[in-house]
Known about the structure:
Elements: H1 3-7, H2 17-27, E1 33-36, E2 42-46, E3 54-60, E4 65-71, E5 77-82, E6 94-97, E7 102-107, H3 116-119, E8 129-131, H4 137-143, E9 149-152, E10 157-159, E11 163-166, H5 169-181, E12 189-195, H6 203-212, E13 216-224, E14 244-246, H7 257-269, E15 274-276, H8 286-289, E16 297-305, E17 313-316, H9 317-334
Parallel strand pairs: 3-12, 3-13, 13-16, 14-15
Antiparallel strand pairs: 1-2, 2-12, 4-5, 4-9, 6-7, 6-9, 7-8, 10-11, 11-17, 14-16
GO biological process, one term: proteolysis
Binding site for Zn(2+) 2: 170, 199, 309
Keywords: Aminopeptidase, Hydrolase, Metal-binding, Protease
Amino acid sequence: MYLKELTELNGVSGNEDEVREFIKEHIKELADEIKIDSMGNLIAFKKGKSKKLKVMLSAHMDEVGFMVTGFGDSGVIKFATVGGIDERILPGKRVLVGEKKIPGVIGSKPIHMQEKDERNANVKLKKMYIDIGTDKKEETEKLVSLGDYIAFHSPYTEFGDGLVKAKALDDRVGCAILMEALKERYEFDLYACFTVQEEVGLRGSEVAAYTVNPDIALVVEGTTCSDVPGVEKSEYSTVLGEGAALTIMDRTSYPDKNFVNYIYELAQRNKLPVQFKQTNTGGNDAGKIQMSRSGVVTASISVPCRYIHSPVSVMSKKDFNSCKDIVIAVLKDLGTREEAY
């Protein structure tokens, strides 16, 4: 399913080259045409048996990360976040810096050197730095440049009862599912869009949707999963192991209710585990796709991921397979219907 390979590639928003090249290489025999637009979106076209419908699948290639903004006299690197990251999780995390993937560690003032008020507060990003093992600013500048991208370093690991720990599950899970979907042939023209810069404003999807001009779009994502200690059950967004999650509404989009209900009912008929996302936080590429041109019938289906936007996101392979199977079931069923759903 290529998930291990995809998550171990680095693709911070604006620097998705590694991910794009991997996907292109592995789908070149599956698509009838592959285009890369000026934004960097990869659009794979698969010709259908009829032209009665144009369907867009979308998953974003980029991940949250960091960018080099400066250097300290002692050789440390100052940095900014790219995308939404909880600063509290950062101290002590391993990273890879720049194209050379120089290993580093996010550090901060040691606790035994902190004043009382510092110990009682979370470390702010501006007080953190990245240590790559150099002692002087000049040494670091020979290895690293301003504007270099920085990614979490976190190898793919399987553990527990069918669980996976990795960075960038948001949204390499979606990319992996689109790659699987391309292995099938459908009744209609299919455009599998691997988009860029979702984490910094849904930018790539806006351009891709305008280019494709689809009748229907299905966004495949990794989404929040909050079934952890300290959270009331009534506040769970999704539950790990209970199947793919359908979005009812979030901060960027209001999916078409008929399309969402159709997907849910189809999953149930096929005995595929499925759930509804219970919260309306966050957003994804559906927000831009839905409003493209004169509007697009859109829905989002996601793999629940604990600890999202961190180097240790956790998903269940059961949920991944549920999402993959539902996406393919939808594509096959749409081709048999007189109306879209």
